[in-house]
Amino acid sequence: MSQIAFWGAVELGLVFAFVAIGVYLAFRILDFPDLTVDGSFPLGAAVAAVLIISGLDPWLSTAVAMVAGAAAGLVTATLNVRFKILNLLASILTMIALFSVNLRVMGKPNVALLNQDTMLSAFFGQGVPEYLVRPIFVGLLVIVAVVLVWRFLESDAGLAMRATGANSRMARAQGVNTGGQIYLGMALSNALVALGGALFAQTNGFADVTSGVGTIVVGLAAVIIGETLLGARGILLALIGCVFGSIAYRLAIQLALSSDALGLKASDLNFVTAVLVAIALILPRLRRSGGAA
Amino acid sequence: MISLSDIQVVFGRGTPLQKQALKKIELTIETGSFVTVIGSNGAGKSTLLGVLAGDVLPTAGRVTIGNVDVSRKPTAARAGQVARVFQDPLAGSCGALTIEENLALAAARGKVRGLMPALGSKRREFFKERIASLNLGLENRLKDRMDLLSGGQRQAVSLVMATLAGSDVLLLDEHTAALDPGMAEFVMQLTDQVVTERKLTTLMVTHSMRQALDYGDRTVMLHGGEIVLDVSGGSRKDLQVEDLIEMFRKIRGQKLDDDELLIG
């Protein structure tokens, strides 16, 4: 693996760390299997790309992209909380609808961001090679997100959200409005995923309507690999696990695809993904039964 | 003071399975009193508790707790007034959260939850003190996950959780029924101590007639959704478990051979 390929994988892993944290909030904290992310990731990319092209400040464009993602999460939450549609199904409905929404936003399936000023433009040409600037920049944003989400989940308000996912009956008995917590959590989760999408568009130079396919699998893979690597002790470790899981996932894929001995092609990506996730799921089980024997 | 006036609860209204769980219940509980509630399965004990907790909104009637009409308020909206310990030890706390996180959740019951850290050093100290008073050695395990505790330990912690924030009424839903006899005895004595010390207005549903007479200052018996017995003071002191069983028998018009009711 070349140095550029290595840092490219790290950069992609960091971009998808936002997805992993979002998926962690939905799946692990709220116990809400949310497939909305397959739509909110390209939504974030689309909104950011279109706004940047129209001349809006890239930071502001990215913020609007996050609001759009939050709105998508709120739609799923409304279908579930207000209209009692099964959570998984509610999220699939939003995901399907978002495909059309994303096409409307962009006006075409693919928008290029070449020669546009992005959030990163100011940091290029300062003596650091671009292939390093991108992961450093995204990495700093990831650290900010991890710290904010961590502090939130360990606050009184965050405890209420965790209780909603862990034991909603108990949460209500403690005065927690569990429906409200689902709205808040889904908005937060999908805003983070949309932020990932917006950064993806800006680091890769395009937004594509199909870029969301499989986002949920990648996010889940990162969460599970993180839990396998670091264990599930405490919120901060779990969040760091999301980040390292996401990076480890991208590196493993890069390694598998670039190793000549394995003879894999780029089109084998989905197969490799499935195998990696399966291994991440099986490993802790083996370790446990090994300890018991 | 708590008052239930003309409370009716109908489940499955308009369907073939329509069932009237509570019929015109009138009950007033003075502040500071400890009422025990007994009754056979299906008598309406859990529904009565649900009406007070907010899980069941009455079909008709008025519920007031501490002079606030809470008749239409769902559980979460009246949680500031109602503390509760569930029958199932797993139901009253979050297994995935640590003991101290559960305590922090309960300490903010019914209050606005902000973005300040849930576990400051002051709060930790306070929790440690309260948990230490259980004499179960749990004060050194505050960072352990709740699901590492036994059922009895969890119920004891739940009891502490119920008293961290103020309340107008404490609801106990057969909270010792799922425990082994030794632990049940411990939790019951702990309950009595907590209720007496803090002068809590308490309503305890129990399956055990022994418990119903040994604890509290008033006993209410439900049958078929109605209050069929309401004793306190002197007449209650003279009452024996055998008398209660005799009454049960008369009311039901059949021989009572449910051993469960005898287990003290």
Automatic annotation (TrEMBL), chain A:
The main place the protein resides is membrane
Q: Does the keyword Membrane apply?
A: yes
Protein topology in the membrane: Multi-pass membrane protein
Q: Where is the signal peptide?
A: none
**Keywords tagged on the record:** Cell membrane, Membrane, Transmembrane, Transmembrane helix
Query: What's the superkingdom here?
Result: Bacteria
Tell me where it resides: Cell membrane
TM ranges: 6-27, 39-56, 88-107, 131-153, 182-203, 209-229, 236-257, 269-286
Identification of the protein by name: ABC transporter permease
Species the sequence originates in: Rhizobium lemnae
What lineage, starting at the top, does this entry show? Bacteria, Pseudomonadati, Pseudomonadota, Alphaproteobacteria, Hyphomicrobiales
UniProtKB/TrEMBL annotation, chain B:
Q: Name the keywords, alphabetized.
A: ATP-binding, Cell membrane, Membrane, Nucleotide-binding, Transport
Annotated Pfam families: ABC_tran
PROSITE patterns named among the record's database cross-references: ABC_TRANSPORTER_1, ABC_TRANSPORTER_2
Report membrane topology: Peripheral membrane protein
Location in or out of the cell: Cell membrane
Q: Which GO terms describe its molecular function?
A: ATP binding
InterPro entries xref list = AAA+_ATPase, ABC_transporter-like_ATP-bd, ABC_transporter-like_CS, ABC_transporter_ATP-bind, P-loop_NTPase
Q: What is this protein called?
A: ABC transporter ATP-binding protein
Which organism is this protein's natural source?
Rhizobium lemnae
